[in-house]
Amino acid sequence: MRIHILGICGTFMGGVALIARELGHHVTGSDLNIYPPMSDALAASGIPVRLGYEPKNIDPKTDLVIIGNGIARHNPCVDYVLNQGMDYISGSQWMCENVLRHQHVLAVSGTHGKTTTTALLTWILETAGLTPGYLIGGVPKDFKETSRLGAGKYFVIEADEYDTAFFDKRSKFLHYRPRTLIMNNIEYDHADIFPDIEAIKKQFQYLLRCVPSNGSVIFPNSDTNIQDVLSRGCWSTQMATGDESGWYAKLLTPDGGAWECYFKGEKRALIKWHLVGNHNVQNALAAIAAADSIGVAMHDIEKAFATFSNVKRRLEIRGCVNEVTVYDDFAHHPTAIATTIDGLRKKVGEQRIIAIAQLGSNSMRMGAHGDALSFSFQAADQVHVLRPEDKSWDVAAVLKPLGNKAFVHDSVADIIDVVSKAALKHDHVLIMSNKGFDGIHERLLDKLSV
To answer: φ and ψ at 226, to 5 degrees?
Structure first.
């Protein structure tokens, strides 16, 4: 079958493309933003990608067009597909019909931690010899690709609550039919499509209805929004994390690099790994619970943690110049910013942390999280934020509680200039964005080396 994918360079749609190619389809795609790492992965798999959304990019002989959720109705290619009467489908629905429907799906959902938890759970199953299929919404360091079909009955998928397509406004995860469901957390996000937290809860409520009674739902006991959703109806086995009613951790090091894993008071594993931060420990407990629920042995779980490399852009060290370390992180929500800084603080102690942030998500650009933004940066010694294009709110006023340690900049070049002059030996520069941030990482490293 000849398949063309609109929005192919996103991590999810790129993953769909790789799986379609693995199934033997002839795959092409279009996107406005063609850049590594996904462009490299597609090229390595022999998938041609065309720049832009001109109708001429779609071969008239195409059998099916898969449309990404970022593609709007007014897109010229959408108009062409509809006018020509071509068959089209969303990426999530295609995954359901062609990959997931006969698999034991382990879905990882929640506002934060999905990508790390999905990658970790996949690596646990891989270490146990189960050869799972997977689709990860990031670039895993332990695998060559962001997705694959796998060779067994298990498929691990990152389950996003964002809407499916311009013609299907359900959350993407409602297509996945999970038998094992992880709900990491539920917070307000995606202000461009959800009017309030209740609208998000309703999608999770529908998701719970899709899990069979012989399936499992894994969640942290401390999350009140999840507790509210569960109270509306859950027909599956419930597995709690975070306290002695279920799975919990006893830290052996303050940064979470080593800890003991317990289940209802019984020690089950000794975990030593390269990740830091309490948020990652909580993600890990969910992955352990999911793996244990399908019979993975604890010695395989321990081995997987010892060798797990995480995904790119998760507190990833991009370089160290003149004893100044520069990190890259995907954090783009106040909670994620706060937990990332806290994890780094526990690792580096009293050494200075200079936080740099681009408010890249739709919610952040719109100022939907303004009330929580200054609090999220409190543990940093300096804060540098790129002023968002949306002028309907004043980011400088929002950051005012941070006093003279917060700076708002009108350009990336200005951030680089100021931070390169302010950075001292043993400083840690933490750059946070879910966008490319105009290549700030390499540009700053170059400036620091002068």
So the answer is: -65, -40
- CA contacts within 13 A on the Cβ side of 278: 14
Q: Give the C-alpha separation, 432 to 110, whole Å.
A: 20
β pairing state of 2-6 and 64-67? parallel
Q: What is the DSSP letter of 138?
A: S
- Measured CA to CA, the distance from residue 142 to residue 186 in angstroms comes to 28
Q: Coil, strand or helix: which one is 250?
A: strand
Beta-bridged to residue 2, according to DSSP, are 26
CB atoms within 10 A of CB 72: 10
Q: Is the peptide bond before 48 cis (omega within 30 degrees of 0)?
A: no
Q: Are strands 163-165 and 168-171 parallel, antiparallel or unpaired?
A: antiparallel
Q: What are the E-state strand segments in 100-177? A: 104-109, 133-135, 147-148, 154-158, 163-165, 168-171
d(CA 450, CA 314): 27
What distance in Å separates the CA atoms of residue 396 and residue 392, rounded to the nearest whole number?
A: 12
Unique residue bearing structure tokens 């998938």: 47
Pick the closest to residue 347 from 254, 251, 282 (CA basis): 254
Per the listing, tokens 């979470």 go with 256
* Range 102-307 classified under CATH 3.40.50.300: no
Name the more confident of 35 and 136.
Answer: 136
Average pLDDT of span 303-332? 88
DSSP 3-state of 426: coil
Terminal CA-CA length for the chain: 54
Eight-class DSSP state of 350? T
Instruction: Assign 190 a pLDDT band (cuts: 50, 70, 90).
Output: confident
pLDDT at position 287 over 60: yes
Fold of the domain spanning 316-448: Protein-Tyrosine Phosphatase; Chain A (3.90.190)
Kindly report the backbone phi and psi dihedral angles of residue 264, in degrees, each rounded to the nearest multiple of 5, phi listed first.
Answer: 50, 45
CATH of region 2-91: 3.40.50.720
Q: By the 8 A CB rule, do 278 and 290 touch?
A: no
Contact of 218 with 189, CB cutoff 8 Å: no
- Encoded amino acid at 398, one letter: V
Domain range list for the chain: 2-91, 102-307, 316-448
Contact 340, 112 (CB under 8 A): no
Among residues 184, 177, 180, 191, the alpha carbon closest in space to that of 111 is found at: 184
Residue 367 predicted with pLDDT over 70: no
